[in-house]
User: Fold this.
Amino acid sequence: MVLKTFLLTLISLMSVNFIFSQEVTTNKDNSIIFDNIVGLENTNIFNGKRYYNAYRTTANNTNFFKFTDYIKGNVIYNNQPFFDLDLKYDVTTDQLITKLTGDKGYINIELVKNKVNRFQIDKHHFINSKFLLKDSAIDLGFLELVHTSENYTFLIKRDKKVSKKLDNRQYVFTFKSDDIYYFFFEDKLYEISSYKELRKIIPDLKKDIDGFYRNNKKLLKSDEELFFVNLLKQLEYKKLNK
Assistant:
């Protein structure tokens, strides 16, 4: 029952494109007006502790998702929407970060994780697995909703491995992507590391999966994430057009 609720919530999230329908556009305008009147500092989104980055990073070597600098994004925090916030996501600590405004803009704040229902940053949509699976002991932190259709949902846990070495008496840190893929099908959530695992999960489409693999070996090597997205799109088409 919990997982069925999970699937329905995922489909709902994607079908409404996060929370940005025409109705929500009005809510967004009202929310921004309210925040401008009372000041974001007086809302509950800044209740988290101050964030300090443990690493010295560059644009091409960072512990953050996609961007070292802040970019505008949207958050559902404690069931309340906040729009056009400065956000960045530290995948090594699984923390969503924002900053104060005005002359206190140098202060970085960790949003209280268990109050972040979901967020969007640079067109990437994330959900809090603990929020979705309320009655489950499973806590996978924030998961990116990469692809959702009527039958299949593909999610990714974004993470990076951190390594360090001593260079000229200083530690130099490097970050390497260490994402974990998840596949949701028929009320079950599976961790997958190979297309072959999909053959076991969906045995009636084994031939279609093998055929797609044979025609897309280069894509699998160059862009595994896109390989899985395209594969699930094809399987969805196949399932809907039997």
